[in-house]
Amino acid sequence: MDQLSNEQLSIMFLSLGTLLIVARILGEASLWIGQPAVLGEMLAGVVLGPTILGTVAPGIFDELFPAKGANALVLSGLTNVYIALFLLVTGLEMDLKTVFAQGRAVLLVGALSIIFPFAIGFGVAWTLPTMIGFEPKANLLNFALFVATALSISSLPILSKTLMDLNLYRTNFGAICIAAAVLNDLIGWLLFAAILAMIQGQGTGGGVATTILMTIGFALGMLTIGRWLCHRILPWLQAYTHWPGGLLAALVALAFFCAALTEWIGVHAIFGAFLVGVAVGDSPHFNRRTRWMLDQFISFIFAPVFFATIGLRVNFAENFHLPLVVVFFTIACVGKIAGALLGAKLSGLENRESWAVAFGLNSRGSMEIILGFLALRNGLIGEQLFVALVITAMGTSIMCGPLVKALLSTDKSLSLASCITAHGFVNPLEANDRKGAIEELAALVSADVGIEASVIAESVWRRERQMASGTQNCIALPTAGIEGLPSPAIAVGMSPTGVDFQSFDGRPAQLVALILVPPKHEADQRRLGGEIAQLFKQWKVRQTALHAPTRTEFLAILKTEDAMKEPLGAA
Amino acid sequence: MDQLSNEQLSIMFLSLGTLLIVARILGEASLWIGQPAVLGEMLAGVVLGPTILGTVAPGIFDELFPAKGANALVLSGLTNVYIALFLLVTGLEMDLKTVFAQGRAVLLVGALSIIFPFAIGFGVAWTLPTMIGFEPKANLLNFALFVATALSISSLPILSKTLMDLNLYRTNFGAICIAAAVLNDLIGWLLFAAILAMIQGQGTGGGVATTILMTIGFALGMLTIGRWLCHRILPWLQAYTHWPGGLLAALVALAFFCAALTEWIGVHAIFGAFLVGVAVGDSPHFNRRTRWMLDQFISFIFAPVFFATIGLRVNFAENFHLPLVVVFFTIACVGKIAGALLGAKLSGLENRESWAVAFGLNSRGSMEIILGFLALRNGLIGEQLFVALVITAMGTSIMCGPLVKALLSTDKSLSLASCITAHGFVNPLEANDRKGAIEELAALVSADVGIEASVIAESVWRRERQMASGTQNCIALPTAGIEGLPSPAIAVGMSPTGVDFQSFDGRPAQLVALILVPPKHEADQRRLGGEIAQLFKQWKVRQTALHAPTRTEFLAILKTEDAMKEPLGAA
């Protein structure tokens, strides 16, 4: 059996270790300055690839990352495994139910934020192909379709991260953004698969039609029967195999099988892995903790290596063509922002929120880079366009966080402590379930604000059922807009045993803060919730609060902790 | 850059998926019948390899696992990455401090359980080489040293699992077993590295001496300066990088670097990864949760694929040579059991416990298989001896669990409920820390048994400091032998907020059971502790207990749950 020699093995471990550590250090540095990790990870490839290391020390570069032979093959195999797993995790984050739950607004925003950039992209690529880097030997239709698709995609991971940082993830606004991005990505990937099928089909005897039909058949099958089957099998796996290892292994194996199938069809392995993620993702049996584990491993060990290897293939300095970058970046932003803005306005969002939706969906991040990588690999685009595409992906992602933050920041004069009503603290909560906890807190706040407890509890519970309010770090923030409430009112309950509020990290809520605001004061609700989440994200602070017997002592904690809190977004 | 073609990628994903799923199914089946997972995983290789699939359907076998070309190379690269990570996790489990903490008993058991099998193995291999499969073209000294080393090694993972199943892990007996196995494995790997260095050195100009010196230098460096550095850097990584992804990635990258280094020295990559694990393993900053995550991923996704691929290389039916298997199996058992038994007796263990130590250390499991795999790869042994070695590894592991269980099972007439003293229940515990909780429970039990509370608390605390009593599933079982106590006495305290008892899974203890026994009644303590751990391992049962206000209601839970409890060892 062919196997690696000792020297090749040594090089393999050395190159993998180098890719991982440089990518992680630069990725961590990106996070520090409030940017997505993928920015630093891509930069690691630029540093280790032909752009810098290959120019400064070509001998070391060739030794470490040989372009031919066993090591190149193994690295190619490994990165394909890594990227398939990364797309599996990305697929897991796609919750199809949220798309349907949000209804009209999502359809408007989602559809227009695809149609606009797609139309503009296709138009420009079709009429002025050379301006955006078309290489004559390629097929113009495929090229134009690809450019249009690449411009239509959004970056769900970066959008999610931004919304979480701002504590907007579980608001109506957040749900619209997420659902629209899911729609964008899903349609984007289907379009891209169709393009790959066309390229592939043209080469083989089966023809384009067969490949496209098989692709569509597989996608529909996975999202209907596949999804149904996964939802049936998961509980069985959880019950009868070693947890969570058994479940993880089954999921990875399934992703590998579907990757093999889609690669065989001709639309690349990652498409299969992605659809497995989508099919499994919204199962109530696949809990947040398992998902979190898989995500930690793949996002911090596999994805960095993959993104860094992208830089090993391309010289970013040589292929940087300023006019191309400017043109591509501009049409990317114009198409997406115009489409999303129009959709948001039409669905009745406020002015600032509409702009925030537009800039949020404009972030392309890792998804566009992966698309570009596959397009380059399949000869669909040249290296110059690839570089322009990577820079666009990065630039739009870097803009996303600060702009959304600036657009949605609100009046900071209202202090958290002043909103906690005179009787608005209880420790311990008697209730063991979500509904009970909400009713208990509603009763506390009722007399202080002069509104009937049942009215409050019902409003909050109605909203809670739509969207659970557990965040992370054992905190839940149930909320509602209440007619006739003059100013925000908060009641806090501590529960040592914890109440299940369906939080992200699966941990029961030990701090439940009921946040009531006057109608249309969503911004206040978000800010107050954000402050609570920031203050109590540390275990020690929550532990102190669990031992606070009265409102006075709880307020004392707020005050001392508030003085030393980290700036928002540093987490 | 060389890369895999579409077809090769498709085959890669298909073969990986097949290896993973078959290995996991058979591994899970092994766990079900109370055997180590590695048994089923090896069997998967036999099924998918030349032994069965290659014989029944050679066409499919060649297609799926080609012996030559890009796919073979990628699989070879991948399995080397997997096995390095597996050894990293194995190294993490090696707690050097326990070896020193146990003192004389461990040194006696550890030393004799290496010296005996080593001497017998070397003697037989040197004097009767052909009887145990020596192939004339090889070097006899290297061969004899390898056989001796392979017989001296133990399987820490299988021993740990057996001890955990029997709730013996955190007893004096368990600590002796674990520490002796750590000593066996560490010395075994060092010996094996020296053998590899000899083979490697003989081929190159540097010579044997240089390679051996570098190996020893690296090992000593990692275990002193390397360990010291890791302990300094870990807290920094935990504080300033994304948790736990940042820490995991740094650890994996370090393992890759050391793997590259040792592979370059000539003693195989896994040795470097293993030593990184040992250096980091006993750091108090590397918490159980991170370790557990890494372990889940590697043990359930990477290790199964690795062990299955072993079977792809060897035809187990063709190379099965009964006399060789019998001889090898016999000398393996005789040497190890005699040595360990003598050591245990000399260090003053009881008769049954000495036999249990001997059968425990006799399990070879995955460690011997990996040794054999590397020896086969380096041409040190032939396929027939490899098969005998795998069968010995499996056979001794299969024996381990049932024999240790049978030897240590005790009188079952004493009921758990009857041991809980008249005032032996409190809910909630007032204490927030280990010491306080022990004092609180000691005070409860004191009047019921007529022994001063401070005497009880001190004995328990002395033992607790040596070995924390947190097990898993939020349960802690502090214990001590108390002079003058007529029969076992238990006091249970429930703590909704949890008390940190340094448990395996890092979760705070919500159920703290103080188990007091007359001196020399360790067996009763183990059994009672085991029953509590079994009964309350389910979240729901603990939750019910957290709501039990009095001893009576707690006893009621014991009774109902006892009636429906699972048989011991099914977990």
Explain what this protein looks like in three dimensions.
The structure is a homodimer of 571-residue chains. Chain A has 571 residues and is mainly alpha-helical. Chain A folds into two domains: 346 residues, Na+/H+ antiporter like fold; 148 residues, 3-Layer(aba) Sandwich (Mannitol-specific EII, Chain A), CATH 3.40.930. Helix content of chain A is 70%, strand content 6%. Chain A contains 24 helices and five strands. In chain A, strands 1, 2, 3, 4 and 5 form a five-stranded mixed beta sheet that branches. In chain A, α12 crosses α13 and α15 crosses α18. The radius of gyration of chain A is 25 Å and the shape is globular. The C terminus of chain A is likely disordered. Chains A, B: This is High-affinity Na(+)/H(+) antiporter NhaS3. Chains A, B: It is found in: Membrane. Chains A, B: It is a multi-pass membrane protein. Chains A, B: One of its GO terms (molecular function) is antiporter activity. Chains A, B: Keywords: Ion transport, Membrane, Transmembrane, Transmembrane helix, Transport.
